[in-house]
Amino acid sequence: MIRAILFDLDETLILDHPVSIHAMRSCAFYAASWYSLDLDALILSFTQHAKALWSHSPTYEYTERIGHSYGEGLWARYETQGHPAIAQLQEWAPHYRVAAWKAALAEQNLEDEALAEALVERFISERRLYPRYPEVDKLLGLLSGYKIGIVTNGVPDLQSDKLEGCGLMAYVDATVISGQIDIGKPDLGIFSRICSELQVEPRECMMVGDNPERDVAGAIKAGMKSVWVERGFKGRDSRFTADLAVKDLLEMWPWLANQN
Prior knowledge:
Elements: E1 4-7, H1 17-32, H2 39-55, H3 60-66, H4 70-73, H5 84-106, H6 113-127, H7 136-142, E2 147-152, H8 156-165, E3 174-177, H9 178-181, H10 188-198, E4 205-209, H11 212-222, E5 225-229, E6 244-246, H12 252-259
Parallel strand pairs: 1-2, 1-4, 2-3, 4-5, 5-6
Helix pairs in contact: 1-2, 1-6, 2-5, 5-6
């Protein structure tokens, strides 16, 4: 019998990548108010340089383990420092952000550090939006008889900001953030922690997420049912087959009712 529904956060309950695209476009339009620019090329170049710089960061191994991405590093807060790597990120990230924009501008023959710094601040401001997927509120209303948990990868401050900003915490009984416990999905430890918080057994849980490698694989390892929601950003992975695949979270409701 399923007693608890566990959700991933980013790209499962709230939009993440589309908001980053919005923020980058806002920055590109701002830069174009000062210079004649190829906006699409600026965005592409910025993304490429940010990825490359992030992959050589002093904390890359740590961020991979807890599931904190290069795009999140462009706007995350690092004030809660339960791990030494977060203190390193707090020191390193401001330089990383400016360097990514400077490199992107340089590809269009521009050297303007003040503009690069302004684009960093603009990106952070524009990125602090936490829109929910349209079906989420209705689904959570239907799930009133279940315990609800959120299992999310990332650094504590950023994921806490998202959880508070998305307006869903009234529905949630427990949350676990990988950066708080130094264990990220798909590691069994993070799933054991949410089960402990909710006082349920893994076999009584269903994990819902968009990432086969993190969410589905972790659920399988933990002995949970799994639902993969296809949002268009993570492809199907034949190594990790969910019990159910959906494009809209409401599609899982009839299937869930049949499980019990």
